[in-house]
Design a protein that fits this description.
Layout lengths: L11 H6 L3 H37 L4 H16 L4 H32 L3 H8 L9
Length: 133
């Protein structure tokens, strides 16, 4: 079966002048619920987008974590070479930048929800690092 799409322009004022008073009042009572649904859907879409950004943009790649851990362990046992030291501090700086980005996105999410950063982090199961408590 073929579908036909029809586009039309409607003058809202003319359209709303046609129904009787009772129908118009009933329609007006439905508007707040319709607006609330639309706002809720828009808010959920924004939340999903922010959470997706957290998951995609704010994570140090696994290979970087492995190298960070290897250098960290080596640093505890012996002194790093100058090249290793430079690499280690670059990885630390990269993670710090991602942490700042996470905080910024979590702040947007908290503002959207009308909640605190702690509430949002708890809601998402994000634990603060031990040194931040």
């Amino acid at each position: 079966m073929q579908k036909v799409q029809i586009q039309t322009e409607i003058d809202v004022r003319t359209f709303l002048s046609q129904p009787g008073t009772q129908e118009l009042e009933a329609f007006l009572r439905e508007i707040p619920a319709l607006l609330a649904r639309r706002k809720s859907e828009a808010q959920k879409a924004k939340e999903v987008a922010l959470i997706q950004r957290l998951n995609e943009e704010c994570v140090l790649p696994e290979s970087h974590w492995q190298r960070y851990n290897a250098l960290s362990e080596k640093q505890e046992e012996t002194e790093l070479t100058p090249a290793e030291s430079k690499e280690f501090f670059q990885l630390v700086a990269e993670e710090r930048q991602l942490q700042l980005k996470r905080i910024h996105i979590l702040g947007e999410l908290a503002q959207l929800r009308g909640a605190t950063l702690d509430e949002v982090a708890k809601d998402l199961g994000i634990k603060s690092p031990g040194y931040a408590e």
